[in-house]
Write a structure and sequence with these properties.
By secondary structure, the protein is of the alpha/beta class. The chain folds into two domains: about 35 residues; about 280 residues, Alpha-Beta Barrel (TIM Barrel). It has 15 helices and nine strands. Strands 1-2-3-4-6-7-8-9 form an eight-stranded parallel beta barrel, surrounded by six helices. Helix 8 crosses helix 9. About 45% of the residues are buried.
Length: about 325
Amino acid sequence: MHLSVERKGIMLNRLFFLVVMIVVVAVLGGVALAQNEGHLSAVVDKLSRGERVYGVSTYDLSLENARSLARADIDYVYVDMEHGPMDFTALQSFLLGMIDKRTIAETGSLAAKVTPLVRIAPYGRESAAWAVKQALDIGLMGIIFPSIETPEQARAAVQAMRYPQRRNAPYPQPTGLRGSGAAIGSWLWGLSGADYTRRADTWPLNPDGDLIALMMIESMQGVRNAAAIAAVPGVAGFYVGPSDLSNSLGVERSDPEVEEAIETIVSVCVAQGIACGITANATDMPRRIEQGFTILGAGRAGGGLTAGNAEAVRVGRSAR
């Protein structure tokens, strides 16, 4: 019995659809397997293995900048919303622009090559929980908190990033205060809601966590309390703000007192085994690495990496 041309076409279309679905399931299965083998955050992954990470800051939330930075030779980009607009709609578009399907297909992993972070506007002495919730719910993988001066402020920052823990959870403290509602974040991470909730916790407090909490130390009170701040569970590291630090000291940025304070901060990081970040140009990069800095910012980028950004990263990566 001969089949009509129309029926043959329908059968071929169904066969084609079946083959495509088998391929999609196989690819997604491979991606799902890969995502469970390590961290989704490149920053957490490298820091957990004792490696340094390099990145840039940006005000430019254009899709062109997002696309360029997603494939740049950096480990992170932090959007500066302390001094730039607190525009979460633009930030969400920027994050979408950083999704690189080709890299996912080539690596078989949901882990992004470049980790998206944000520096929020509220200082440690102000309420930052609302800004943290907004940032994390749209898919950010870490927060830089400006002007943290006390361990109580650091603890409040970590609490804002954590979900309340289940009974008998292995890492119950500090108590999480983050509300449930990260449908966009879980979608951007490529996870189910349950898997996102499990992985959206602060590292290194939770060794499986993919969120990073960095406290900016940029005042003399912060320097004096650095050891106590570093001891707060969930604090992944510090980020030094030299300009505000010099203002707090009442001296010029070039004054030796500023460098003495920076040495104190990085010494605390090294002693307590947490990460320490600072922005450095190509000339300063070797010195900062020798001091013990493990998060190296290469300056501000816009429209992709500048020549200065790229050279600073190159020098840093070539250092031993």
